[in-house]
């Protein structure tokens, strides 16, 4: 990401809600939270989410069918995003790893596959929950 694009009101509301959230949020829970601020239809939420993902400010966590605010929107140097998802408390940590990305791209090279992006979702138990 270079410059943060000008966000619309809806996009700002959705991004703020995701930034406040402790765990990934579904489009419907976002709609519930933002109904009073004027978001009435699922389509409005989906449109905002789509743009925010395009800008690299939000990611979709496929296995949860939910969305998270990017943990480091201004320094995404890698195309591979890894999510560590705690199945106990719902916490999601996002990180990137150059070695993983090299391996994926290496496979792509060997198989004439051109990778644009990749997301890896790890499920398990976070440090807090393991300690408890
Ligand atoms: Zn990110
Ligand atoms: Zn946990």
Characterise this structure:
39% of the residues lie in helices and 20% in strands. It is α+β, with helices and mostly antiparallel strands. The chain folds into two domains: 9-69, Winged helix-like DNA-binding domain superfamily/Winged helix DNA-binding domain (Arc Repressor Mutant, subunit A, Orthogonal Bundle), CATH 1.10.10.10; 80-131, Ferric-uptake regulator, C-terminal dimerisarion domain (Dna Ligase, domain 1, 2-Layer Sandwich), CATH 3.30.1490.190. Strand 1 and strand 2 form a beta hairpin. Helix 1 (9-20) packs across helix 3 (42-54) and helix 2 packs across helix 3. The longest helix is centred in the middle third of the chain and has 13 residues, at 42-54. It is globular. Bound molecules: zinc ion (ZN) (2 copies).
Features:
132 residues, alpha+beta, Arc Repressor Mutant, subunit A, Dna Ligase, domain 1, 2 domains, two-stranded antiparallel sheet, 5 helices, 5 strands, binds zinc ion
The overall strand count is 5
Q: What class do helices, strands and sheet pairing give?
A: alpha+beta
The string of secondary-structure elements, in order, is: HHHEEEEHEH
What fraction strand?
Answer: 15-25%
Distance between the termini: 38 Å
Q: Would you identify the CATH H-level superfamily of the largest domain? A: Winged helix-like DNA-binding domain superfamily/Winged helix DNA-binding domain
The helix tally amounts to 5
Please tell me what the overall shape is. globular
Residue runs with pLDDT of under 50 for 5 or more positions: none
Bound molecules: zinc ion
Widest sheet: strand ordering: 4-3-5
Radius of gyration, taken over Cα atoms and rounded to an integer in Å: 16 Å
Q: Would you identify the CATH architecture of the largest domain?
A: Orthogonal Bundle
CATH topology of the largest domain: Arc Repressor Mutant, subunit A
Mean pLDDT: 92
Estimate percent helicity: 25-40%
Overall number of structural domains: 2
Largest sheet features: 3 strands, mixed
The CATH first-level class of the largest domain comes to: Mainly Alpha
The quaternary structure here is: single chain
